[in-house]
Predict the 3D structure of the following.
Amino acid sequence: MKGNVIVGQSGGPTAVINSSLAGVYKTAMERGYTRVYGMRYGIQGFMEEQYIDLSKHIKNELDLELLKRTPSAFLGTCRYKLPEIHEDKAVYERIFELLDKLDISVFIYIGGNDSMDTIRKLSDYALLTGARQKFVGCPKTIDNDLAITDHTPGFGSAAKYIATSTKEIICDAMGFSYKKKNVTIMEIMGRNAGWLTGASALAAGEDCAGPDLIYLPEIAFDVDKFVEKVRSLLEKQDVVVVTLSEGIHNDEGTYICEYTSGSETTDAFGHIQMTGTASYLAQVISQELGCKTRAVELSTLQRSAAHMASRVDVDEAFAVGGACVKAADEGDSGVMVVIERVSDDPYQSTTGVYDVHRIANAEKVVPREWINKEGDGVTEEFLDYVRPLIQGHYNPMMVDGLPRHLSMKVQNYDWAE
Amino acid sequence: MKGNVIVGQSGGPTAVINSSLAGVYKTAMERGYTRVYGMRYGIQGFMEEQYIDLSKHIKNELDLELLKRTPSAFLGTCRYKLPEIHEDKAVYERIFELLDKLDISVFIYIGGNDSMDTIRKLSDYALLTGARQKFVGCPKTIDNDLAITDHTPGFGSAAKYIATSTKEIICDAMGFSYKKKNVTIMEIMGRNAGWLTGASALAAGEDCAGPDLIYLPEIAFDVDKFVEKVRSLLEKQDVVVVTLSEGIHNDEGTYICEYTSGSETTDAFGHIQMTGTASYLAQVISQELGCKTRAVELSTLQRSAAHMASRVDVDEAFAVGGACVKAADEGDSGVMVVIERVSDDPYQSTTGVYDVHRIANAEKVVPREWINKEGDGVTEEFLDYVRPLIQGHYNPMMVDGLPRHLSMKVQNYDWAE
């Protein structure tokens, strides 16, 4: 008897985080594990005995396919930081007691940097105490900021949605350009890493000029220089479209969004909740240059738009989920599964495993040489890296005109009298 | 010799406004007109001799299909109000001189209320002066606020995008609900008519609870009552999702967005540019109830998301464009083509023509009986009306991972060094 598998989801969701969950489930069943449990709301819910038997929800192959196309965390997610082992041993004793109670032999955690920190601590504790469970991290983040792995599942689909929306927003802006200059500023997720914002450059091609200016958080942002850039662009063209990361900041590290709001909140990891950069800068441009401006914040749409998921991304997320079970089944623990790029053209990838201690809490940002000299665009090398990841389309399963999702429970609605 | 056709686009764009343009082009060619001209930037550009020969841009059937899938106004659009004839006759003399110069016998204008006003004035002037040109209006607006026609091309696709995004945003919000109540407020276009906001209710179904509260501009909005509603919902559930129209206002007619901004601008028709309602109310909820809030503004995405266009809508927009040419060819002038619903189940529609004098400047709002008693939701009748309009999907033509559009010119980009 191999015992059971438990899997959790943590951190910000993506369009394909459930495809990894589907991969975990399928491989675990195929490899002869008895049950696959899902933690509700990650380790936080699990510690309070919130979990489900996944086979009750994935009843057939169609459900599995629906799950692959369902955005956000099917199991629910959390932002919960485990204490260091020496700080609070009781937390760990509690978790391992529950794992034993459920006869868990494999623990998979789908998440980003903070989640890999959880895998690191749990696998360390297992080593210290001789516990039998294997702990494997499954990478996930639209931000693409995990070290070692070539890229993260979730990034390709968000990049595809962003590039598509950028094209459509540019179409929209171009339509209104007669004798009326207009500036559109798009705010894209990314606190410290500009991968997603850079992906807006994919919009450029035979049918679209792409954004005129692209600002990544890797480069200090200067509001005055920005205004001058826009002013000089408006001398030769009527429409200016700018994409920028929510996390752009000045050379002293002050976020541009802090110029305006004043009401920041922080999460359990000390991250500032960001918003308002685009609308602040749109106001500045409007005041300084007197032209029509529009701020577009892609908001949570960019991480939950499963209807625009990339096939490469959905398939890789699924494969990575399966590879986590395989790794644990073959004895690995304290590792994260990584994606290795085998070839650029034609694009091919495979999976590997990597020591989670070397990954946790290290952020991968866009290398300086993939950003242009001026700091307001990305290079061909950047585009060559991203382009394979947005290829292919997973048709949503349309029911009554809308994409169908797999759902655990539906809150009742009573507004229709 | 039948002479030539000229077609223009006006007002806010939609995902399918170019499908109507494609319909005009195809039917005009088939009916033996020599040339189809396109006004650049509507009547405003045309008066300054900005026009193109469409056959130079639509070179084959593939181009025509691409045009049907291209969002925003291919020809460029404007918000330009013609003076009354008695106010400035010279403007009309100028326009008709140009029409004669180009040997125009049919003038088609694709637009909303304001554009039908243009058709009315031009056809009146032709009657007064005995000019030979026929003037036909082609309805278009995501707002669905045109009178007489059952619905307007553009509405169905925007409704489909909004319902899809609402589902995805609800998924996202549900994932984060563990011991942390959260309220999401989605702001949807619609100044005086709540058709689009009501369409968010389509998200509700077997896999999704749909929005908890839906506020249309047809009903006066009370901020205090709203806060109490949300408070009481949060007593029984962790996640509250609210959709509301940008145009909601209190019972004295003051827009909620005016509570905050102070920097409104108005267009040529005196419309206020609206934004900020959702973020204002999110701030109020956060202060009053102390929970996590998020404001999502769908912005121009909702009118330009051709990648989520409804097949019914694209096909009807195409048919309506063709019907405009047919009407003019058969002698109609001063009319708008309307969509008539022949049957609800199975859904069938046809086109008719209607005197533009009875349409211009009249706004069709959501009837009171299609809004629930409380004024915070829509009824089944509303849903039965909208549901057929979001059916079916037009697959985008994907090139290198992104939807391909037909484009007239591409501004050069130089950020890639």
